[in-house]
Amino acid sequence: MKASQKKAASLLMIGTLLVAAGCSDRLESDRSSSPDESPEKAIAPMTITFASGDNNPLWDDMQSEVGKFITEKTGISIKAQFPGNNTDTDMFALMVASNEYPDMVSAKVSVGKLKDAGALIDLTPLIDAHAPNIKKLYGEYMKRLRWSNDDHGIYVLPTAPVNQTYFKAGSGFELQHAVLKELGYPQIKTVKDFEHALKTYYNKHKTTADGQPIIPLSLNGGEWQFLISVTNPAVAATGASDDGEFYIDPDTYEAKLHYLRPEEKEYFRWLNHMHDIGLLDPESFVQKVGQYRAKIASGRVLGLIDADWDFAGEVAALKKEGKIDQTYAHFPVTLNESFKRHDFQSTGYLAGIGISITKSAKDPVRVIQFLDYLASDEGQILINWGIEGKHYKVENGKRVIPEDISKMKVKDNWNFRKTTGVDMYRFGPSYGDGVKDPTGNYYTPVFPEQIEKEYTQADRETLAAYKVKSYKDLWPSEKQFPVKPWGSAWTINMETGSEANVIFQQCQAIVKKRITQAILSKPEQFDAIWDDFMKELEKAGVEKLNEAYTKLVKDRVKLWNE
Amino acid sequence: MKPLTEGTLEAGSTLKRNRFWFKAYQQRYLYMMSLPFVIWIFIFSYVPIWGWITAFQNYKPKDSIFDQKWVGFDNFIELFQDERFYIVLRNTLAMSTMGLLVGFTVPVIFALLLNEMRGQFFKRSVQTISYLPHFVSWVVVAGLVYKMLSTDGGAVNQLLMWLNIIDQPIQFMAKGNLFWGIVTASDLWKEMGWSSIIFLAAMAGIDPELYEASTVDGAGRFRKMWHITLPGIRTTFMVLFILSIGHLISIGFEKQFLLGNPLVADYSEVFDLYALKYGIQMSRYSYGTAIGIVNSVVSILLVFIANGIYKRVTKETVI
Prior knowledge:
The complex is a heterodimer of chains A (about 550) and B (about 325). With about 550 residues, chain A is α/β, with parallel strands linked by helices. Chain A is about 45% helix and about 10% strand. Chain A has a five-stranded mixed beta sheet with strand order 2-1-3-11-4. Chain A has a four-stranded mixed beta sheet with strand order 6-9-5-10, with helices on both faces. Chain A: InterPro entries: Bact_solute-bd_prot1, SBP. Chain A: Keywords: Signal.
């Protein structure tokens, strides 16, 4: 009796093991036999898996109104994954390490890594055979889609909108309308003006109307947005154009880490001064993004130096609560009068970052057809405007957004985008703002008349006071600057794991540490810390990095302009 | 034993072998039952070691493992020449040693005190409440810690100000020299109750007669704790202690990653974070593997040293 019990137990154990092994085998074979051979391919339902490097908290796997409409039209539904709490680089690094990919990726800066690992397929034959709309959309820029001088294949469909005209200024320095109103709309051109405005207002008000302590200036410096809120503004405020972590000499194409520019030292000295006189939030470099955003949403941060997309949700929340005076106006602030902000200098068409199809895609033809549909006139209008009769109407041949929808869009942007799905599916190729379709309407609802409609009362008062139609008019126009032949350097990727790449990573760590220290130190220690910073960069091999990057920039110029 | 001594040496050894097979046959079901686990361990713990050869290559995921470029010890040389490696090693060992010391003494004391409780209901509730934080994710804990230590209305600063101990809020999270302490303290808060469970279980297993006997001999509470309870959990304690020494170097990076910021980077970077940043994140799989190998070697060394010391002191061994 006892022996048979033992026997049964051991057999059961082994049996379980075998079944487990058998199960995984079956799954494997199921997957390999799945490609469906049905003749009605074009509308047969299919799910495309998609990994996006940009978080989208609104994503709902195409359950919104527009999403369902797209699924109806194409049979495609998309299952997306996002980095969540991780960084996008981690997500893709792990993907490469495990050699398992979704059908589609939007890999951002990791695209080189995926390409090196052989994960991306060349889209040239697919585009030629199945994607007339994509071809039409990119038009003369098709050349810029080529990978490199050695490999002319197309691995990425860039998502940067084609022929975009910028009507909105989302960068620069931000001040609450309340501050401007109280001070009688003073001139805000230099960091001194900005500082003065904050100081004057803060001296009079230490708390908000609902009794919370006011923070004059807070930076989003605790996480990766350090680049956006702390270091990029140093470049912009000292009259250089945005080339990521580098400065590119416009004549010689020599690249160098932009911190090596002496002008920037003075910008950081000003931040140091702001900290010294107590205007800079001491938590600027330790706070998590959530903390930073919570402060903005409470309406107690007077000034910001950030890009509008970094706090758009919080501004929407402020509007929803009716605190429109606590939302922000944008100003092209520079270190002093001698600099001009290059924010709107044209880069030409900025290929580089976009969507790719991986070698794991079961049916790449369906995927490209889907992207082609989104790039068609019908698809573009659908993702930008919504469904006709529901989210927009056509009156006398012009697309208009009805009053109630427009109101929701301004006051409750979050819910508007979530329920309608407008603006949510722009992960493929797209036309830029200001481009007109064959009917003479704009492809996107971002054009001067529409923007003006969406201004709040506070925006209108501020703009009227400065005698401009939009914040962008405060900036130097793009016509003042030549087109940059290398596009923008932040779209140029270094070879992953190369020596330059390692040096770059080390320099980034040094930059984060030293810049923060320099800003938070006593003013008399600033120079010493800055000198150490420079020495450390040198020791890490910044010269070699500059050389390697210069070569990349020159290669890019050749690839795009030959 | 008898037939063995009687036979010749040769016969003895065949007999011995026979006995082995006989015993093996007798215990065949036990062997069969353990087989799945042996296979499991083999597959998950030994097969992956095969990947170590990538540390001596310049591994690119595109090609098969046989087409890679061999680079000898280059990755190790680079690792040992990187000064950051030593900072990282220091941080890892410092934080894990602190965590180990505090993380063992406090739960033992806590378990001792709890063990002395009379009321079952109270004891159970305290125990449950104390181990609940174990189930809270580090992301949430890091958020809490940041909020508590914030200068902008953080509870700790407000308390210290109210007690007039300080007159300016302290920037806890911006001070490198406080970072190790903050990590240890938050780890303690999170894990104290959980780690004490096993000690409580060991204490429950102590023979009550021992306590009765010592009561008769006139021992008080503290004497009983010292002479009966503590020796009673000694073996459990030592096994756990030596095992966690094996994990000293692989403390993970969650807490350091979530609690760290650029200002305290010199104190917050740990081994796994280093491997992530300079290995996987940059697709330098070979370098990452080299870091992993060093990690394992150091761990094994630490375990043997700890066990050696224990053996010398107590004449017992756990491994």
